[in-house]
Design goal:
The complex is a heterodimer of chains A (about 120) and B (about 120). Helices cover about 0% and strands about 60% of the residues of chain A. Chain A is built from no helices and 11 strands. In chain A, a hairpin with a 4-residue loop joins strand 7 and strand 8. Classes of the chains: A mainly beta (about 120), B mainly beta (about 120).
Chain lengths: ~120, ~120
């Protein structure tokens, strides 16, 4: 069964600190892994997308890693800011060829950055 | 950058009425759009895949007669919640994939969501 699990479920950190969010998946056939940031009451916004051959990708203070062998990904946030408070969702894509592509969503990690 | 617009952002209706939510891709064409439902503190749940010019594909457990989807053009998909009831109250989000980008790895753009409250 295709599944995406994220940890921790929620996290509170102080402004300026770093944090790392985890995503473990059992999705086959694996195509790519995406991290999204979703502010409360808003739609998700893409942070990174990584394919099988990519190990790391950065977007400003966000750095995502991917280990396709262990089927794990992490999202590292550096020097957190209050505006980083949001839900972070890991989405893994299974591609069955042609136009058949299925996205499996993780349950998200709710991050709260406190002053 | 590419933008997906949803309207209305918030809607309150009486039980038994129908509500239509629009999803538009503003600066790109999308043959496929997706509709999701999200309950508080939960992740997005795919409801259906909207295909331009053909019938939508619904996920298991989603009533197609309850949630009508129409994808009449390459830039517009609509979700109509028919005979809404309080349990239909939720956050509905659409997403669209840019037709011009790689199907598998191309960016998926999300709308801002529509908060439906059924009294």
């Amino acid at each position: 069964k295709n599944q995406v699990e994220q940890s921790p479920q929620s996290l509170i950190i102080l402004e300026g600190k770093n944090c790392t969010l985890q995503c473990n998946y059992t999705v086959s056939p694996f195509s790519n892994l995406r991290w999204y940031k979703q502010d409360t009451g808003r739609g998700p916004v893409s942070l990174t997308i990584m394919t099988f051959s990519e190990n790391t990708k950065s977007n400003g203070r966000y750095t995502a890693t991917l280990d396709a062998d262990t089927k794990q990904s992490s999202l590292h946030i550096t020097a957190s800011q209050l505006s980083d408070s949001a839900s972070y969702i890991c989405v893994v894509s299974a591609w069955y060829g042609g136009a058949t592509n299925k996205l499996i969503f993780g349950t998200g990690t709710l991050l709260a950055v406190q002053p | 950058g590419a933008v997906v617009s949803q309207h209305p952002s918030r809607v309150i209706c009486k039980s038994g009425t129908s509500v239509k939510i629009e999803c538009r891709s503003l600066d790109f064409q999308a043959t496929t759009m997706f509709w999701y439902r999200q309950f508080p503190k939960q992740s997005l749940m795919l409801m259906a895949t909207s295909n331009e010019g053909s019938k939508a594909t619904y996920e298991q457990g989603v009533e197609k007669d309850k949630f009508l989807i129409n994808h009449a053009s390459l830039t517009l998909s609509t979700l109509t919640v028919t005979s809404a009831h309080p349990e239909d109250s939720s956050f509905y989000i659409c997403s669209a994939r840019d037709l011009g980008l790689d199907f598998n790895t191309g960016e998926l753009f999300f709308g801002e969501g529509s908060r439906l409250t059924v009294l």
